[in-house]
Specification:
Distance between the termini: 57 Å
Number of helices: 9
Radius of gyration: 28 Å
Structural class: mainly alpha
Helix content: 55-70%
Order of helices and strands: HHHEHHEEHHHH
């Protein structure tokens, strides 16, 4: 996963899944602690959700003596249980864990859903303010949903960040010219 989630300050943890996992039931307390630390550490690495393959670096990350950490990694339920080598987009081989990947995929999805909801709400408020301003200029035009949407898009394309009455008047004129152009095009096609 090449994306960073800097604002993602928490992680989803499937408590029941963990409580019933082979790692928790069969791993030593020390291995379980390092395993959990590595999952947390992976969230801050780049690419997000991955770890370096070098066990001496991993030992430093979990504050363990490198030879002891390497010995723990040889255990069936050691700190690197179910961590697998992944080829990253940048060509580097790093360790990844399917739980971490699934958690991050879910986090990115929720973030995108939230971003889309926020953008939709902002657009709806922006159009409502536009409708109110247009109503002061032309009550009929303010009732035309397609016209309001078109004017909003036109203002965005113009790079208008502050929608003064002058800008809204220009948008209303552009909408009128657009409608006139559509009407002429229809006449040409039928005539």
């Amino acid at each position: 996963m090449s994306e960073r989630i800097d604002a993602h300050w928490f992680m989803t943890w499937e408590r029941r899944r963990w409580l019933n996992s082979d790692m928790r039931l069969r791993g030593t307390p020390e291995c379980r602690a390092y395993y959990f630390d590595l999952i947390n550490i992976a969230f801050d690495h780049s690419p997000i959700g991955t770890l370096p393959t070098d066990t001496s670096i991993l030992a430093r990350l979990v504050m363990c003596e490198p030879s002891h950490f390497a010995a723990l990694c040889q255990l069936e339920f050691g700190p690197l249980h179910n961590w697998m080598p992944y080829l990253c987009d940048n060509g580097e081989i790093r360790l990844g864990h399917r739980f971490v990947v699934a958690t991050l995929t879910d986090a990115v999805s929720r973030r995108e859903d939230n971003r889309a909801r926020t953008e939709a709400a902002n657009a709806a408020k922006r159009r409502q303010r536009l409708r109110e301003t247009v109503a002061g200029l032309s009550m009929d035009a303010s009732k035309n949903d397609a016209g309001i949407r078109w004017m909003d898009e036109w203002l965005v394309q113009q790079g208008c960040t502050y929608r003064s009455t002058g800008w809204v008047e220009r948008a209303l004129m552009a909408w009128s010219e657009h409608r006139l152009g559509l009407g002429l095009a229809r006449q040409r096609s039928t005539g």
